[in-house]
Amino acid sequence: MPKVSTEYINNKKNSILEAAFSVCKNKPLYEITMKDIIKKSGVSQGGIYCYYSDIDDILIALINKSNTNAGYKQNIDEIIQSSTTPKEVIESIFDFIGKNLKENMTTTGKIQFELTVLLTNHPDRQEKFMSQITEMQNSQYLMQQLFKKINEGIEIGYFNPILPSKNILCFIMTSIDGIVRDSILINCYGPIKNTQIEIDEISLINTLSKAVLLMLNAY
After folding, report:
1. pTM to 2 decimals?
2. 114 and 177 in contact (C-beta within 8 Å)?
3. CA 107, CA 119: separation in Å to the nearest integer?
4. Cα distances (Å, whole numbers) of residue 73 to 13, 15, 51, 70, 145
5. Using the 8-state DSSP alphabet, how is residue 163 labeled?
6. CATH number of the structural domain spanning residue 174
7. Closest Cα to residue 112, out of 160, 67, 165?
8. Fewer CB within 10 Å, N side or C side of the chain?
9. Sequence-ordered list of residues with C-beta below 8 angstroms from that of 73, at least 6 positions apart, any chain
C-alpha cells in the first residue's frame, strides 16, 4: 500500500465516522454491522479494515468524537470555577445537564442509550467499551463533581438536608436515568414517537434541580 499522509488517514476515518453516524440515526446501534457502514461510506470492505478493526472500534471512535466536540469536562470545570455558592453550582450543573440532553437527545443520546442495550446483551464486549469510551468517564466526572459539591455544602452547614445525603444522591441518579430513557423512547422510536406526550428535558431537569435543593433545605 502506498504511503499516505496523516491528514489523509484522518480524513478517511472521519468520513467513515460520518457514515456511521448517519446509519446510527436510522438503525438501532445493536443491529448495525460493518456491511451497513461499508455501504453508507462507499469504502471497500478491504479498505475499511485499514482504519478500523471491527464495528466496535467504529462505534467507540464515533461516541468519543461526539464527546470531544461537546467539551463536556471543560464546561463542568468552568461552572464550578464561576459559581459563588454551593446552591449556584448545583443549579448550574443541572442547567448544563438539561441543555446537553435537549441538544443531543435524538443523536448521541440515542446512540448511548442503545449502547446500554448492546452491552447488556453482550457482556463480553463491555470491557472494551467501558475502558475506551470517554462518555463513561464524562458521566462519572459530572456526578462526582455534583455529589462533591453537595457533600461540601452539607459539611460547611450551607445545606441542612431533610433526608440522608445517600438517599438524595440515589434520587438524582435514578431521576436523570428515567428522564433520559423516556425522552429517547418518545422522541426516537416507532409508535411511541408519535404520542401526544411531550417531554421537555430542560424543564424536567430544572424541576429535579428544585426538588434536590428543597431536599437540601437550600431555600
Report:
1. 0.81
2. no
3. 19
4. 25, 26, 28, 9, 10
5. S
6. 1.10.357.10
7. 67
8. N
9. 138, 141
